[in-house]
Amino acid sequence: MRQAAFRSYAFHIAVIAALFLLQYVLPAYHIGTFTRIMVYAVLAIGYNILFGYTGLMSLGHAMFFAAGAYGAGLSVYWLGFGPIAALLAGVASAFVVSLLAGIVVLRVSGVAFLIVTLMLAQAAFLATLYFNTITLGDQGIVLSLRPIEMAGLSFALSDPSVKYNVALAAFAFALLFSLWLLRSPFGRILIAVRENEARTKLLGYNTFLYRFWALVISGTLSGLSGALYCLLFAYVGASFASLQYSTLPLLYTLLGGTGVTLGPLAGTAIMYYLIDISSSFTSSYMIIVGAALLVITLWFPEGIGGWVRRFLRRKPA
Amino acid sequence: MSARKTGNPVSLSRRQILAGAGALSGLALAGQFPRSAYAAGDPLKIGLQAHRTGIGAAYGYWYERTSVAAVKVINDMGGIAGRPVELIVEDDATDAKRAGEVMEKFATQHNVDFVFGPLFGHVVGASAARAADLKMPLFIVSEGSELADGQFNRYVFQTGITNVRSQVKAISPFVIGNVGKKVTMIIPDYIFGYNHRDFFTEAAKAEGGEVKAVIAIPPTETSFTKYFSQIPPDTDAIYHVMVGPGVLTFVRELGEFFGTKGPKLFGFIDSLEAVAIASPGLEFLEGSHLWEAFPRYLSGLDTEGAKFYRDAVGLDENGANKDNAKEVSTNSHMFGCWETLFSIKQAVEASGYKGASDRKTFIETVEAITSFAEGKEHPQGEKKFIGKAHQCFGRQFISQVEGGKLKVVHTTSIEDGLYEPKADYTTQAL
User: Fold this and answer.
1) Is A283 in CB contact (< 8 Å) with chain B?
2) How far apart are CA A10 and CA A211, in angstroms?
3) Which of B104, B168, B383, B405 is buried most, with the most CB atoms less than 10 Å from its CB?
4) % of chain A residues with pLDDT over 70
């Protein structure tokens, strides 16, 4: 058991190390692309904790993403925060929003949960437009960021390598945290809730609390992604709270494999490159993306990550 | 290979590790893109960030068509500083997220010299943020007033089209003097609408008029009659600036609500770009006034420059596609792409720009420009350019609907729309 845990951590750390090394071999464009993929993957990791492991399908994660983005962006724009303070403000905003949302949305489950999260996120989206004197509405805010000052050194967030490594650090944290969480007794109970909530209750667990904290962790990680996006790309706008940012992590997770820790990274990368490459050939690229998603859903129902995991677990002949 | 045990979450054979390493190397090699190498005769690469898809697609189509036409004209003239222009188009899907990605693609994959073209406010904001990081000159073809207010950065310019604040300031005296003094505004419930609300309220007051009510309609709305009951009964004029797919329904329902006894109408052509004025249901607009930046009908601006521009883009005298009269243009916006490309040409040739290392000189050269003369390069008319704010100012047109067509009844001067911008980007380091 301990050996299995060691191998699992070693494999995930190897993936992180490979991502670190990629920046020395990839051309500039793909370094920028992987920076974005890692930021979105943090959003998808957060989503996977709620959907993949706890079995709660949400259409409201744009609200948490936007809470992080606005928490960071507004604190820079209105309060003059530096990048690290702004990142913490973003994460704290998402944490508070997740707590409040959890109290409301966890009163229901199944399809009703999907609808309530969607409605709540739409209300949050409209709020970003309504309070436009603070958020600057759909136009959004272009940020001017101070460099990160650390140990007498200065790191400008406009530097692509700083961006990449900040995104990698956040991704590594989110990945290893999710791995640790899901191997912990808490994570096992989340899986039990997903598989059979009634039986888990019968065993004496307060499943509401487990679902609640799963949602808070999921929302806060999504907020970390939003705060990172805002700080690394110097912009926050109302479109970050739109439905698109709720459907994207769902697609990333489905594509990469629900309940697979590396699934979010795989799903995000595949989806990103599908759009990027197909848009070079046609303006109807979403048809290609849709067809590809259809194929993957039909022939790889466990997602790419699930399929790879099954492949790796096969007994050698 | 003791790690290979059934049920182990991760067990890799040497072959699998080698295959993974091979794939990684392949990925690295596959990404080798040509590096910058500028020489005389090498093309000058200009990126068009187009709204090919998404809510701005109607504009995107015409922006691209106009840009392709302008590049052809420039290349036929011998290019820019003797170098042919290569136009590289990327779709930003009218989406802020994709806009940032496209900016990076232009800068680090296509290695373009300049980028231009975004129109919608949220896309402009996201692109402007990336322009500073990438040190990429970005020429927006938008009407947002944020640039002149100092909300962007030194890499962003607006040389081809005026902004909302200037447009509203220019047309307000006509609206208050000729359409009505007591005005109710119907605006979209987002920042574009709020710009109109704020700027017109201020300008109307200065002209002795009064805004009686402002009705903000959510962008997702599909039925409008319920809002019309909020229009105060003593309203003389309705100022409307709706955009989006609900516009036709909006005008039709307005007509049904008021019949022939309603207040006079003044609108921005944004409501009806790419829509034929003679469309069924728009009869209610007969006699009403509309702002235009570039008259849709040839009769409204029959200059040599305007005719040359229309021929090159392929517009008939009604502002529609020469080959398909049903395809109506977005003429009050798309000319901005044409004029932007010619302003880039002017600045490249004046600065001696050769490649990315000359961007500082290029930017300082653009900032030193004070005006653009009317002609084939700037068919909409002469422009005054405030270099420190990176914003141009020009004339505006007010047209009246007569027999299902637009007839220009008033042309403002540049000074009518001129104001002192807050921004001074020249103080920012490059």
Assistant:
1) yes
2) 29
3) B168
4) 99
User: In the prediction, which pLDDT does B244 show?
Assistant: 64
Topology adopted by domain B165-292+399-408: Rossmann fold (3.40.50)
- List pLDDT tens digits, range B249-292: 888 888 888 877 789 999 999 878 888 888 887 888 889 999 99
- Give the residue on A whose Cα is nearest the Cα of B54: A283
Residue A306: inside a domain, yes or no?
A: no
In a domain, A174, yes or no: yes
Per-residue pLDDT for A65 more than 60? yes
Domain ranges of chain B: 44-162+333-394, 165-292+399-408
Nearest CA in chain A to B106: A29
pLDDT surpasses 70 at B13? no
pLDDT, one tens digit per residue, over B122-160 is: 999 999 999 999 999 999 999 989 999 999 999 999 999
This model's pTM is above 0.90: no
CA distance A42 to B219: 31
Two tokens at B11?
A: 């067990």
Angle between helices A28-48 and A207-233 (to 10 degrees): 160
Nearest CA in chain B to A24: B28
User: Same CATH topology for B44-162+333-394 and B165-292+399-408?
Assistant: yes
What are phi and psi for residue A186, nearest 5 degrees? Answer: -60, -45
* Distance (Å) of CA A153 to CA A127, A147, A148, A149, A156: 39, 10, 8, 6, 10
B6 and A CB contact within 8 Å: yes
Q: How far apart are CA A285 and CA B30, in angstroms?
A: 22
Q: A223: distance to nearest CA of chain B, Å?
A: 16
The interface predicted TM-score (ipTM) is: 0.83
Residues 193-212 (A) with a CB less than 8 A from some CB of B: none
Give residue for tokens 């750390």: A13
Among the listed residues A197, A164, A288, the one whose alpha carbon sits nearest the alpha carbon of residue B133? A164
- Assess if residue A265 is contained within a domain: no
Provide φ and ψ at B368, rounded to 5°.
-85, -10
Considering the domain boundaries, does residue A130 fall inside one? Answer: yes
B44-162+333-394 domain in CATH 3.10.310.10?
A: no
Element (H, E) at B266: strand B264-268
More confident residue, B184 or A6: B184
CB atoms within 10 A of CB A281: 9
**Domain range enclosing A154:** 2-242
Domain count, chain A: 1
The one-letter code for the residue type at B249 is: T
CA dist., res. A86 & res. A166, Å (int): 14
Residue B55's nearest CA partner among B27, B96, B16 is B96
Cβ atoms of B44 and B348 within 8 Å: the answer is: yes
